[in-house]
Amino acid sequence: MAKACGAALLSSFRCLTPEVRITTTLFVKRTTKFTLEGLSFIPKCGVNLTFRKGFVSKGWYWEFDYWKQGEEKTFSTPAGQLTFDPDYIDMSISFPGTSYKHNVTLNIKR
Prior knowledge:
By secondary structure, the protein is mainly β. The chain is 4% helix and 49% strand.
């Protein structure tokens, strides 16, 4: 992860650092919930989730006006579209008008 954020992001919030944690829960009905911890909020953002198992992957994109600390966001995949049980979820949070992205890979524990 980048150690510094662009000036446009610094005016809105501090950099996403290792202290910022995203916790996740993956449900059998193909719904994933993420909770933002360690940061009071992040402004308008886009979230890309890619579900992976071996060489198979499938991704979706969501947009949010903001995300507050402790707030749980729900990411539901379209019915019947996620046809495998993922081992990993790649999450990329991006911000309009910037090239900054926060990327993390989550290992789904069974």
